[in-house]
Amino acid sequence: MSWTVLLLAGLFEIVWAIGLKYSEGFSRFLPSAITVLAMAISVTLLGWALRQLPVGSAYAVWVGIGAVGTALLGIVLFHESTSVLRLICIGLIVLGVIGLKFAG
Fold it and tell me: At a CB cut-off of 8 Å and minimum separation 6, what does 46 contact?
């Protein structure tokens, strides 16, 4: 259950990271409100997951989910670079997150 909560926390991290872009420096109300709400939910869920999971692994997985998801959505939504090196690096983050999940 803790890993599921951590996954949800990571998904909300993606929401707030992308929301930062849409908020245009917190100058647009609705994207800013969504961003702040997603931040609060993400950190709260991370805190719940940390009741059962090791802090080092859980935090790294949370950041990894956020980083990979945000990078992929950046490619889709904002037409960011899809260079081979960038995609390889994103893949390495995914492998690291999977490794941490299985390492405990």
Answer: 6, 9, 58, 59, 62
